[in-house]
Amino acid sequence: MRLISSRFTALPALGLFAAALFLGNTARAQDSDFNLALHANSHTTAADIGVPAYPGATLYKDKDNDGTVDLGFTFGDTRFRLMVASYKTSDSPAQVFAFYRKPLSRYGEVLECDHGKAVGALTVTRSGLTCSDKTIDHEQTGAHANSNGHELRAGSPRQFRLIGIDEAGDKFTRFGLVYVELPRDTPSGDKPR
User: What residue ranges in 42-123 does DSSP mark as E strands?
Assistant: First the structure.
């Protein structure tokens, strides 16, 4: 499975996905001190991610990409969630970014990143979100944000949304809408908002 053309490599999450498929859409195990819930589906929408759908954009699918994914687990107080929806439009990347700046601003300051570097004067938001993928604990989540493209980010280091331009060609712009919620019991002690 390819998520936004390899922008997110989530091998442990894919294992989670396979386990969830094997056990059904939701698996739960309960004991007096143990609660585990897994979920996976391929029907994520822009609204699920918390942003509006881009006017006229269509879901981008190919043989290696279902276009959307929603993976997650809850283990006690620890939560991980990754939602992705890939789209294409005949509009330019600048038009896509212009459309999404305002909806993203409801989650905090909007940070523009290009290949892992901040664009403009804002380099870190008040919540601590940066263009670096160092805010993601790769060992714990398996999610790797390669910062190999142009994107907008808003939220906190542990719970954020991003709009990433994956590919701009002569005929269309491919972009991804992403929501990431990382476990709050990470070594840095950051809490999701």
Answer: 58-59, 68-75, 78-89, 111-114, 117-118
